[in-house]
Amino acid sequence: MKKLKVSDIKKGDRFSKPVYLDKDTVLVSSQSPITENDLERLRKFGISEVFCDGEKINSVKDDANPLRLGEEKLPFLDQSEDGMRLKVIYDKITHNRYEFDSIYVESLQEVQTAYKLIAEGKSFEIQKFRTVAERMVDFTKGNFQTVAIYLTTNSQNGYYLYHQVVNSTFYSLMLSCYLDYSRPKMIDLCLAGLMADAGMALIPSHISEKGTVYDENDTKTVKKHTLVGYQVLTQKIKLKNTLAIIALQHHENYDGSGYPQRLATNSIEEFARIYAISDNYAALTSRRPYRKAFLPHEAIKKMIGELVNKFDLKLVRLFLNVLSMYPLGSYVELSDGRIGMVIESNRDKPIRPSVRIIKESGGQKIRTLQFCNLGLDVQLYIVKPVDVMEANQ
After folding, report:
1. Mean pLDDT lowest among 35-44, 134-143, 160-169, 249-258
2. Residues 178, 333: Cα–Cα separation, whole Å
3. 100-114, 149-163, 190-204, 313-327, range with the lowest pLDDT
């Protein structure tokens, strides 16, 4: 990767590829602007150089991700009441994108740092996570209906585990909003979620980072991560039991078929039941070396179908309310051949969301902002979910 002098980087600079602190640690994701917070962190730790494979972006350009800078500049011609309402929603989503990116990268860095210390047999202060946990909670509380859109459209670079933990924690926080958790309780859930897979840091890398499906011996080794993670968190990190319990129980299944204790129903703590649902969805919708990512709609169908006995049914139903059958940020093909991205769910009609149209039926990209509310336009319906690459090619 090319070296960049920190002294040459200014607030607001964006790059076509992620900017790294080292070969594993992302400072900012691609297309995201450098913030004053980012520069302050670099100054604080005396970092004079960062690394990037991309180029500095000097002007606003269209981007493959319809939530990146530039799309909100497209002309908007629909003056209908519902069109204007959807434009307000979309403007808020695009405006808050950069704040989400900043919080996401900061969370990712804290998780990576902590897990590496655990792998080295060292301790750290859990309080260091409180600031980032508060940012995650406050952002989710203010945007809990749209956080999913950022997670669905977020690019992931580096080791999958750190993204898995941060994504699962965000989904857990979204679910906790529907459960009316207080802010302090949400912060506890957030801290516990970020530490949930700490035990994976102690699994040998030739197994944890294996590029093929685990064999029987690998599976036995990996299953130890719940218990060893719980032991490290309670004994070395001194995390209180009510928070460390997610690390121990997040692979327990509601029907008693999970591990390590084969607990069932309400014997599993609520925090762990919430995180288990979020963790499974995040895992299904993420690519692994041995399989493609499930489309969001497919992941939801799998969880409420063949996997439903693994989860607390009451919480699964709430999770479906959070994400809908066609989760925010996912892409769909309409019955008239157009392709759009889901930007608003319809709780009363979960298979009829509102979408931002991005391609005509002939495949041409649309150069105006267009929306379609399937809850009102009963002549149209969703034919199928569409992969992000297919939607944007």
Report:
1. 35-44
2. 29
3. 149-163
Considering the domain delimited by 2-57, tell me its CATH architecture. Alpha-Beta Complex (3.90)
CATH of domain 96-323: 1.10.3210.10
Question: 82-134: per-residue pLDDT in tens?
Answer: 999 999 999 999 889 889 988 998 999 899 999 999 999 998 888 878 999 99
Would you kindly state where each structural domain of the chain is located, as residue ranges? 2-57, 96-323, 331-392
pTM for the model = 0.84
- Give the list of residues 6+ apart from residue 383 with CB closer than 8 angstroms, or none: 332, 333, 334, 335
CB 297 within 8 A of CB 327: yes
Please provide the DSSP assignment of 268-334 as one string: S-HHHHHHHHHHHHHHHTS-BTTBPPPPHHHHHHHHHTTTGGGS-HHHHHHHHHHH-SS-TT-EEEE
**DSSP at 143:** H
